[in-house]
Amino acid sequence: QKSTGSSKVPEPATKKKQKKTKGDPKTAQEEESHDCGCCFPLLFALLQLALGASVTVLGFLMAGISSSLLVRDTPYWAGITVCVASLVGFLMLCISYQPDEKTCAQFTAKLMYFLLSALALVACVLAVAFAAHCYLQVTKFTCQTIFESCQCKLDTTDPLGRTFVYQYADGCDSLTSALSLYLLLQMVLNLIAALACLAACFVMWKHRYQVFYVGIRFYPLAAPEGPQQKV
C-alpha cells in the first residue's frame, strides 16, 4: 500500500486549468465575453476615425470655396466629434481588461466612449439635416456674378426675397456645382458615420448589460413524491 501511494503522479497544470475552467462556468463566461467584446471597439474606432477624418477634411474644403458659407453648412464640427470618440475607443483598448469593470480607468473609458459616440451621433444627424436643407436651396438658386461676389436668390419675382451673397467666389456656376457635390458627399458620409456611432452605442450597451431583468418567475409547489395514503 505504501508503494502504491507513493507512485501517484501529479496531474499536469493544463489538466488542472481545464478542470478549473469546466468547474467554474462564471470564469469561462467572463473569458468568452472578453474574447467576443475586445474586437468590436477596434473595428468601430477605425471606422469612426476614417469617417470623421473624411467629414472634417470635406468640411474645410467647403469652407475654402467661399468665406460666406455658414458653419452649419460646413460640418467639420461633426467630423471632429467623431474623431474624438474614435480616439477614446483606441484608448479603451490600451487599458487592461478586468471583468465586471473592476477598475476605475476601464469604467471611465467605456462611459466616455459611449457618451462621445452618442454626442457624435447627434452631431452627424444635425449635419445631415443642415446639408439636406442647404442642398434643396442650392438647387433652386438663380445666381448672378456681381464684382467678386455671387448673389443668389430663391425667387427672383419676389422683391423681398432673401438674397444669398457668397464673397470671393470664382464663378456662380462653379460655386453651385461644387457646393451641390460637397453637400451630397456630406449627407452620405455623415449618415454612415451616424449609423456607425449608433452601432457602437448599441454594442457597448449590449456588452455591458447582456442580461435583462424580466421579473420573478414563480414555480408551483411540487407534489411530494412517494405513494399517497388512501383515506
UniProtKB/TrEMBL annotation:
<protein>
    <submittedName>
        <fullName>SSPN protein</fullName>
    </submittedName>
</protein>
<dbReference type="InterPro" id="IPR007237">
    <property type="entry name" value="CD20-like"/>
</dbReference>
<feature type="region of interest" description="Disordered">
    <location>
        <begin position="1"/>
        <end position="28"/>
    </location>
</feature>
<keyword id="KW-0472">Membrane</keyword>
<keyword id="KW-0812">Transmembrane</keyword>
<dbReference type="Pfam" id="PF04103">
    <property type="entry name" value="CD20"/>
</dbReference>
<dbReference type="GO" id="GO:0016010">
    <property type="term" value="C:dystrophin-associated glycoprotein complex"/>
</dbReference>
<feature type="transmembrane region" description="Helical">
    <location>
        <begin position="77"/>
        <end position="99"/>
    </location>
</feature>
<feature type="transmembrane region" description="Helical">
    <location>
        <begin position="183"/>
        <end position="205"/>
    </location>
</feature>
<keyword id="KW-1133">Transmembrane helix</keyword>
<feature type="transmembrane region" description="Helical">
    <location>
        <begin position="111"/>
        <end position="132"/>
    </location>
</feature>
<dbReference type="GO" id="GO:0042383">
    <property type="term" value="C:sarcolemma"/>
</dbReference>
<dbReference type="InterPro" id="IPR030429">
    <property type="entry name" value="Sarcospan"/>
</dbReference>
<feature type="transmembrane region" description="Helical">
    <location>
        <begin position="42"/>
        <end position="65"/>
    </location>
</feature>
